[in-house]
Amino acid sequence: MQLVRQHTGASVNAVEALLLGIVQGLTEFLPISSTAHVTLMGYVLGLHPEQHAAEWTAFLASIQLGSLAAVLGYFRSELRAMVAALWQRGSMSAELLEARRLALGVVVGTLPIVLAGLALKPLIEGEATKRLELIAAALLGVTILMIAAERRRAPMQRGLSQLRWVDALLIGCAQLLALMPGSSRSGSTIAVAMLLGIARHEAARFSFLLSIPAIAASGMLQLLELFSTAAIPPMGLLLSFLGAVVSSYAAIAFLLRYLRTHTLWGFIVYRLTLAAVLVGFALAQHG
Known about the structure:
This protein is mainly alpha-helical. It is 72% helix and 0% strand.
């Protein structure tokens, strides 16, 4: 089944696919929810995601592979060091010890999403998670968590060299919130990391590294399903992928630099505004 407009029956064209990829990439790593933005755009384009719930979920997960390519490219040096540290035996330099700690943190933090992801897959792909009012509720829920992180963050901020396994596990549990469209993977994980006393920009760095296994697993699984349903033409998938690569890379670089000197309050205000827009759009549709 293809993703088509309800009234005209036309499928997603190349320009729309590219635009969806760019929007997904820009919002995947910023704490503002990529799913909320891309799903809203889907409604604006007349695609009605709730009527093609499984195909829409597969499309979003597939273009996330563009975001995966971007994060792998951006952190390529760190990832090489992490792999080397895991294989290294005997004495290690301080740099490799920190890389090993980070790698093990990613492994521990990935456990919750691995255990829960497949079990919750039917719920995630369901029609209910494409409803704008529920996406708005998820936006508000994680926004409250982000407000708490800014208001209650520890005075002494730790770096990732002091990451504990319990920190990684709790941040990994926060990543479970990202299974609910609208919550934001980066928003939930950065907020919990800050509540644990990790500095903002370091929290973002760990959040991005932690996203790699989850995006890779869901993206590859859904890509296979997407090809089997032919929901989006191959050229559209390619364009959305390329758009996501470029915009994701830019978003990663921006946020890591931004959070060194700024708070999350700008994103908090934006999320509250977006939630109001989504509710208004949902009411207009039902009206």
